[in-house]
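We now fix the convention by which a protein and its fold are recorded. Think of the row as the fold of the chain written in a discrete alphabet. Here is one such record, which you should read through line by line.
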Amino acid sequence: MKQLHPLMLAGTGSDVGKSIVAAAFCRIFLQDGYQPAPFKAQNMALNSYATPEGLEIGRAQAVQAEAAGIPCHTDMNPLLLKPQSDHTSQVVLHGRPIGNKNAYEYWRKHTGEIDFRQEVCDAFDRLAARYNPIVMEGAGSISEINLRDTDLVNLPMARHAKADVILVGDIDRGGVFASVYGSIALQTPEDRQLIKGIIINKFRGDLRLFEEGRHMLEQICGIPVLGVIPYLKDIHIEEEDSVALAMKSSKFIVHSSKVNVAVIMLRHISNYTDFNVLEQDPRVHLFYTNNVDDIRQSDIIILPGTKSTLNDLYELRRNGCAQAIIQAHREGAVVLGICGGYQMLGQEVSDPQHVEGDIERLPGLGLLPITTTMEGEKVTRQTEFLYHGQLLKGYEIHMGQTTAPPDGGYVWEGHHCLGTYIHGILDNAAFINRLLEPFKEKIQERTSHFDYQTYKEEQYNRLAEHVRRHVDMDKIYEILTHD
């Protein structure tokens, strides 16, 4: 195959769809016989994933690697920032945490003697030596000119990679002409030359109505519009972070023939992709909430992962959710805790070394006979284990050590209460079936085995087909091979 230039999907802002479009191109290049790989120099997200080596990267790059048909690796996302508060993030470099930094310290001083720019460039170079092409993703907006000197992920990274940049704009939020034109106009002359095309994303309605707008945009920007992609309505790809989570929150409706599953909306919720399979299960009505009345009426309550266990536990006690969960459990609801949610279900969570923050100790919800102590070393690994005779798979990403009864295993089961450190446990049909077992008389719809891996492959292929239909791939290949 021809050697293609690296391709960067940059954005006019956050949540314009860069991650999904990058996943689409990973699958398209794979289908066309290439060996693509994703790359994002720096990611800020609470949704992360454990690589086969047991190291941590952003979930978006793990999804894109899956679309590309290859195992994920830390070189695909060498720098990951996991927000812990409005001002502080945990810094993960090459899959391992190197400490917590406030925003000013990170952006203005970086970290001690570590040259982050060199680290991410080296990671890209290693990846580019093994794959063709590299599908790069920018972060947020490319026009944050006040951060230009410290930007590691957008146009400075494209310059190092000698990448062709496609600017992605979101027409659904409005102002697409101003955001696209302004994003280009605010670049330096050198960086402006890197931008070879525009993709308009999330279009609703009749595409013919935008033909004039397309030509006007090309005229004022001097750059071709390579495609207008309609809004994805029935294609399901895992989202990058909680920017899109608010869209999932829905008003609670009691379903008499479905199992009502409440996922508690934590302020620092992480890895909510754990619930993607349950969202697709026709036996289940899943919703996100912190409304105490909704919680009390639910059949199953899930406490998800969190980047700040103690802060979110404090908030649950303050807003009444903790008491509502305990009351619902007493009245027969099943409670499941995953990762940080598992820690909250115990007798106590302590943080004597202030790994997470200022709170040193809080009582848990008392539903499981466990205690947790936060420690500086992070556990990250992929896991396989037997559960009631079934082989289950998942991954762990957590701080803290939990003392549990010796027979607790990977899933501790109490009275109507389960806890586990395993993210992705709900991707296993055997576990979902056991979770729903107490409600078998309520469930009217009988379903066959749901193969999540097959389902995801179908979604990647449908995404690729959708983007091919609305993007000029011939022109893109011409751009990526032009000397």
Observations:
- DSSP finds 16 helices and 24 strands in the chain.
- Residues 433 and 440 are 9 Å apart (CA to CA).
- The first strand starts at residue 7 and ends at 11.
